[in-house]
Amino acid sequence: MSNPPSWNALLESARRISPVRVALSGGIDSLWLFHFLKNIAMIEVTPVFFNHPGVFPEERVAAEDVIAANAGLVFEFGRAEMSAIWGDTEKERCYRCKYHLFSRMISETDPAVTICDGTHLDDDPKRRPGIRALTELGIVSPLRICGWDKNLIRTAARKAGLKAWNQPARACLIVAGKFGI
Questions:
Q1: Tens digits of per-residue pLDDT, 132-168?
Q2: Does domain 5-159 have CATH number 1.20.1090.10?
Q3: pTM for the full predicted model
């Protein structure tokens, strides 16, 4: 079986945006994107992890493994800092959080480097207000741009041998209501 047309689009896109920093959440979407950029497109790519208290432990471990193996970067965000960003109401919480995290990454990244994330075609901006922050900040979402959906990502990740290929899709602990705010 040959690669889908979106494979070539992603490959071409990768070559246009290099060098890249990928925001690595520890979820399969960003893990796959990093794998693709590094091992298939073979471009200059650095994984970056936002370590904050809202990250699921399993995803933290997955991201930390990639960071350690690839000389990645970790941006630390403490509980007090993030609690102030999240606030006591859900309205715009995801937007504020993404804006805060990515603004820090932008401030510590050379302008010649493209900042990417793992947003894909199935991520609905109506359900994911953080996408608005990504758009406002100029973050590139190659999977979304090139027509990759969750099923295609999982299939490609499984074929590539990524052990997280079938991990459950989940938002952060805050959105999932498991943080207690």
A1: 999 999 999 999 999 999 999 999 999 999 988 888 7
A2: no
A3: 0.92
Span 48-84, pLDDT tens digits:
999 999 888 889 999 999 999 999 999 999 999 998 9
- Which residue from 173, 175, 156, 177 is spatially nearest to 28, judged by alpha carbons? 156
Q: Which residue has the tokens 């970067």?
A: 73
- SS3 letters for the chain? CCCCHHHHHHHHHHHHHCCEEEECCCCHHHHHHHHHHHHHCCCCEEEEEEECCCCCHHHHHHHHHHHHHCCCEEEECCHHHHHHHHCCCCCCHHHHHHHHHHHHHHHCCCCCCEEECCCCCCCCCCCCCHHHHHHHHCCECHHHHCCCCHHHHHHHHHHCCCCCCCCCCCCCCCCCCCCCC
